[in-house]
Structure formats: structure tokens, C-alpha cells
Amino acid sequence: MTTPLRPPAVPLVVNDPYLSVWSASDALTDRWTSHWTGTRQSLFGMARIDGQTYRFAGLTNRNYGISDISTMNQVSVEVLPTRTIYQFEAAGIRLTVTFTTPLLPYNLDVLSRPVTYLDFQAEAADGKAHDVSVYIDIGSDWVVNTVEQHIVWGRHRLNDRDLLWMGSADQDILGKSGDDLRIDWGYLYTAANGDQPYSSVLSDDAIARPQFAQTGELPTRDAVNMPRPVDNRPPMLVSAWAFDLGTVSSQAVASQLVIAYDDIFSVEYMYRKLRPYWRRNGADALDLLETALAEAEDLRQQCEAFDAELMQDLQQTGGDAYAQLAALAFRQCIAAHKLAADQDGTPLFFSKENFSNGCMDTVDVFYPSSPFFLLFNPELLLGQLTPILDYAASSRWPFPFAPHDIGRYPLGNGQVYGGGEKADLNQMPIEECGNMLLLVAAVCKTYGDVSYAAGYWDTLSQWASYLSEKGLDPENQLCTDDFAGHLAHNINLSLKAILAIAAYAWLCEQRGLDKEAADYRAQAEQMAQQWQEMAADGDHYRLTFDQPGTWSQKYNLVWDRILDLNLFPPEVARKEIAFYKTKQGRYGLPLDSRSTYTKLDWILWTASMSEDNADFQAFVAPIYDWLSATEDRVPMTDWYYTDSGRQVHGMQARPVVGGVFIPMLYNRQLWQKWLQKAGI
Fold it and tell me: Structural domain boundaries of the chain?
């Protein structure tokens, strides 16, 4: 059994690019919790046991009169696909705190809800009876971009339960776009669930926390001095809850807090403001909370079963280290997207390039994340492909190649990267054409139906023609690894173009276009043969056609097997895998011969080409060691140095980690099993 993973950052309330709160420390009491950008978003927790108060989340402040509170011993933390489970102990009590975010890919209604369940379960660890209550508060820094912004707050009653809310005073809906941003519109809601007595208050942290610590009670009146800034030097308004668990012995006692965020409108797409998917039929915040409360127990059971089944499949596929890596990637991948409803109700799934420029629905970002959605629910991949295809087919897009993006999140009103719609400067013509053709073919193959491709046939045909002319020996241009700069004669990019041409040939065949299918297939076969001759460099294949003595990961080769294209003989992958084993760094396989840095997603794509599971695990093991050792405490980065383990620049919390699920696509029986859960 592999030593439990020490995540660089632990997912807590991780739903979408704006509702995304993490613990970037070993213990939940070592640092304040934070948004994925690193900006503080406070969560504070205490347990009162037999009149003595202990802290299990957040930091103390001597000005609040609670600096001498003892800290509960954190026994463990476990990250599963949909849940994070902490265990604490103090004074004879074992407290289990579970964050459950039901991002179940087979149920888009549930997945789209911005809801996380926070469960508290106490039981005696010493066989004795103890009086136990639990306190938790959520800071108003969750609802603003910067703490200078003003907030308002209040409470409702929902089916005889308290419902607390808070939000920014200005409500500038979709008023900002970019990368290092937090949401400052919509409203954060909290509500108690379960049979245990509770109390709630909207109060200053400097009042609510010490009062509970000293008496076990909360203030009886909500604060009314609003609007006011979040940073009120130093008190901050919090949504505070106390749960009286009563006498606790060997029989566990539990209670639950529901956390939800209604953003009202999620994104702007071609100048149309789109609702979150869960709102598409007219639901509002009260409907959201009512449904979340009613379905809590059923969803808990579904998440437990989902996690258990997926972890078993991951372990069987790649071993325990791989399973823990994939579990950490699961919520991060989904939560870097927002599921919105188009005006006809069609689900559109928009990604955000977290800390890599904030672009929206970037083709070379959803390309590496695509294995996740091909495995669990290709409808979510269609929700990424469709905006790009519609945009490319419109009169606005002037180029014969595919776009890079549709805007800067959350405003998807046209490409902003490179030359945008104005010039071909810093575009990625071969990259994005290849990505789109491969993914459209993959989706159609998954569904066993090419009607989706038929709806965009002229556009796809134009891209195939472009690759046919330009793809074998690419000109000086960017690829998905654009951070490495322009590169001419890129062998891995050529590989993508060749496979994409073969994928288009397959689409032609499925549509009954026999001549086109034969022509494109013949060209792909000829190009594949030329590639092998031009790229050969003894015991491996080069980085570029014109640079002997170089090498690179040929991760694009995965589609040859996944799509049953069968263009390249197995010896090509075998030769590369054998060579890569000689180039491993301390923390993984470098991307290519130019630097010691690597991409996490591409290592897993490359490793999946191995025919030996021992080789696969040998590529995974250094990544696992890196995650447990890195000093960069951020939601999993995908770009880091393999010698030092340091993060390169700021790329973190990105959806591309969905690429770690690609080995599952090599097992057709396993793949089909997960598709059946999505009704496919």
C-alpha cells in the first residue's frame, strides 16, 4: 500500500471557477483556507467538549480573546473523487468532518448545482460519554473580489429552517473578466440540515467566535450595520453556525451544514447572459436550497458508492499512487468549468484557463482534459466543442483554421488570444485544427453516431484540408505548449495533424463519403510513413525534424489506439517508452530536451502508451513523490520542474488535470461501463 498522498492543496468547497475553496496546508488549522487563486476565503471551526473548546479549522487571533484555544489533533485527511474527509481527536472525542461536493458527471442537474455538504460526525474514542457541540463560520470574504468591497446580508426561513445569506452590495453581475478574480455578485447561502438542535447568526467574527469558545452559545442578534466593507479593521462579518450534538458516546452523532452559491447569471456568451444550468427551468435560490436539503442523504450515498467504485477501477488500472493522483484531480477538473444553459436549454460547459491567462473555452485546454469527459459523460465535452464550432462557422471568424478560445472568462464574446479575430499572429493553426478534429471524432465514436459532425461538416472539412496542406512539416508556430514559444518542424505537432487527418477520414467513411475517406486515409498513411523516416534519431524520435540529438514526449500518439486508427506500428510507441525511461527526472519525465520542466497531463498521456503496467507505474511514481514534497502549496499545478519540483509561474487549479484519466480509455470494457452510467 502506497503511503497516503500529501496533497499540495486539499479541495474543500470546490464547485466552479468562482466557488473554489481549498486548504493549502497539511493541517486545517495551519493556514486560512483560500480561493484557488490564493486569496483568503475564511473557514473557521471549533468543537466544544465537556466545556472545553478546541479548534479544528482556521487560525486564532489574540485580539479576539481566543488565542489560547487548544488545537484538535488532526489524525488524517483523505481526498476522494467527490469527498474530502478529515478526522480530528481531542478529549476522548473523534470528530469526522466531511466535505462532499456531488460533482456526479452522469447527472448534469446535480453536477451544476453550486452546493457542498459539510458533515460533522462525533463519536467517543475512549468509551465514555461526552457533551459535544460544533461551531463553524464562513467569512464574507467569500462573496467579494477584494476585501475593500462592501457587503450586505440577511436571513430567511425555509421549511422552518434558518437560511443565512450574504453578498456584495454593488452586485456588478459579469462586470469583470480575467484571471486573478473572485466572484463579487450573487449570494452565498448556508443552511442547517439534520435533526440536531442548532443556532445561527450573522455577526462579527470577533464576537461570535469568542462567545462560543467561552460559553458554547452564539449571539442572539444579527449584525445590522450594513453595507460595510469585508475588511472592517479587523472584525469581519461571518455566517456562524453552532450544532448541539448532545451527549456523545460510542454511537456517532451527526449534523450537516449546506453551503450554496447562486450566481444568478454565470457567463456571457456572444453577448447573451446565460443562467447556470440548474436555473434553466426557472428555479431560484430557494428552490436550490430546498432541493439540496431534501436530496442530501441520497446524494451522500451516491457519492460514497461512486467514490468506492471509481477508486477500485483506478487502482486496478494504474495502482494505488495513480488512484490517489486521479482522486485529487477529479473535482479540480470539473470545477475549472461552469455548466450554463443556452437559451434553448442546451448545456454549454465553459472552461477557465486558471492562471494561464483566463481564457474561456480554450481548445488546447479542453483537449488535454478531454479524457475525463470522454470517460464519464461526453455530453460535457460536446458542451465545450459546440461554442467553438458555432463561433468558427460564423462570419466573425475569418481564418481557415480553428479558433483558440471564445473570450476571457466569464465573457465569451470572441477570441482574445494572439491576434484574436484581427491577425494570425500567435495563433495555433495546426494545433487547434488537430485538436478539434480528433475530439469530434472521439465524441462521435463514443456515441456511435456521426450526426454531430455532419452538422458542422463544412467547417471540419476546411480544417482537414488545412492539415492536409500544412500538417506534415509544420511552419514556425505555437502548439498547446505555447509557454515554450514558437517552434518550426515540430514532430509531435506533425503527429497530431496526421492522426487528425485519419480521424477525418473515419468520419467520411461513417458518412458514406467513400472517395473522400479513401483519399484522406491514403494521405494519412503516407504521412505516417514519412513521419517515421523524417523523425528517426536512432533509439528514439526527435523534437523537430531538423534537430538530431533532440527528443520530446509524443503524447499525441495516444489517439492511434484510442480511436483505432492504426496508422503507426506498435514499435513506435515501444521505442519511445524505452527511451523515456532513460530520461526520467527526480519528479517525472521532462517535456522535451529543451528544459527540465514538464506537464503533468502529458506524462500520463505518454505513460498510457506503455504496454507494461510496471512501466506505467514507474512514470507515475515520481509525480506522486512530487505532489507530496513540493513546497508550492497550490491546487495541483500541471507545469513544474522535474529536478526541483517547483511550480513554473502560476498555472494551477486548471482543468487539464482531467488528462490523468486517459489510461481508463485503453480499457474498452471499463470505458463502456462508465458511459452506461451516463446513459450512453
Answer: 11-266
